[in-house]
Design a protein that fits this description.
single chain, 348 residues, mainly alpha, five-stranded antiparallel beta sheet, 13 helices, 5 strands
Length: 348
């Protein structure tokens, strides 16, 4: 996209994002089974150590060093001061526990369209389960936003000094508004809650295993949308990847589990991580163009320069297993040697 066109498009994205935020409403207790299942599902996720530690880091104001580096392209160079933040500062974990115990569902505001779609879907249906997953992802994001906006910063030190530190003070590219961020969700100038939405995406990724996205084109055509994740963890793919049915079922089974006793609980599937068998993928810079997203405003479109750069990049097996499976099939069919076959006569 040309710079002039991009500027117009981004302006429109901001308008859409703000309109969407302004339209959000609480999911109020109407006594329905749908509401009870949603509350149970969110409680199940919030009860995990993963969620507790994730939100405690927002309360702290900084991620711990291991989490800061567990990020695709962490952007941390030199003797970064985050390396000294080996554990949460005193009070952060306790404050997160108190927040969880006192959590009031009414503080959440969600898409009215999503609430309607979920509430109208027959319980147990494919539509119901997909909308439940989307509601939970949106709620986890919103909780991250709310906690960041409280600006608690229990970190024992200067959060901004750590966040804005750079090995080369003149390197403006190294600066970012928060270390609680997902490498592909950095457009805080577009997001309705600004930097807080960056933190919301980060929290969602840390808990679920990626930011949730859906095949909106399939949905518009009247089909059930496939569920995708776009992860941020180090060592995983940088592409949207589609969950298999058994992975989706594991998520749903955990969400709707009604057992309160830990020994009887369904095993927590989070974080859900991409495996080589998850070959249905979409490159991160093409997701919205291919109709794979949660909200249309969540990521700016790539520039022509970015598209050219990504087109030239080598495709490794971890990110492009489908391409490598094709190559392996060709090699099995025609042989694997890339040099002339030995004719048995030797040579100089």
């Amino acid at each position: 996209m040309d710079p002039a066109d991009l500027e117009v498009y981004v302006r429109r994205m901001k308008e859409v994002a703000r309109a969407a935020a302004a339209s959000r409403v609480p999911f109020t207790d109407n006594g329905s089974d749908h509401y009870k299942i949603f509350c149970r599902a969110l409680k199940n996720v919030l009860s995990t150590d993963l969620a507790l530690e994730t939100y405690a880091q927002i309360i702290d104001g900084l991620p711990t060093a291991d989490i800061a580096y567990d990020r695709r392209s962490p952007g941390l160079f030199g003797d970064h001061p985050i390396e000294d933040h080996e554990e949460l500062c005193p009070g952060a974990l306790e404050r997160a526990r108190a927040f969880r115990e006192e959590f009031d569902m009414s503080v959440l505001t969600l898409s009215p369209r999503l609430i309607r779609s979920y509430s109208r879907a027959p319980i147990g249906s494919k539509a119901f389960l997909l909308r439940l997953v989307e509601l939970i992802a949106s709620a986890l994001h919103e909780i991250g936003v709310l906690l960041f906006q409280l600006d608690l910063r229990l970190h024992d030190g200067d959060v901004d000094a750590v966040t804005k530190w750079a090995a080369d003070p003149a390197d403006e590219e190294a600066l970012r508004p928060t270390l609680l961020s997902h490498v592909f969700y950095m457009d805080h100038d577009v997001y309705p809650s600004g930097v807080a939405d960056m933190v919301g995406f980060w929290a969602e990724d840390r808990i679920i295993g990626g930011v949730t996205a859906f095949d909106r084109r399939a949905e518009e055509a009247g089909a059930f949308p496939n569920l995708y994740l776009l992860p941020n963890r180090a060592g995983t793919t940088n592409r949207y990847w589609q969950l298999h049915d058994n992975q989706q079922q594991a998520v749903v089974d955990f969400l709707v589990d009604e057992n309160d006793k830990p020994e009887s609980r369904v095993k927590c599937p989070f974080p859900v991580l991409c495996a080589p068998e998850n070959t249905e993928r979409v490159s991160h810079h093409l997701g919205i163009a291919r109709g794979v997203y949660r909200d249309i405003w969540e990521r700016k479109p790539p520039t022509k320069e970015m598209l050219s750069f990504y087109a030239r990049r080598p495709q490794d097996a971890g990110d492009y297993p489908d391409s490598y499976q094709l190559m392996e099939a060709i090699e099995r069919q025609y042989g694997t040697s890339s040099t002339p076959a030995d004719d048995g006569k030797g040579g100089q």
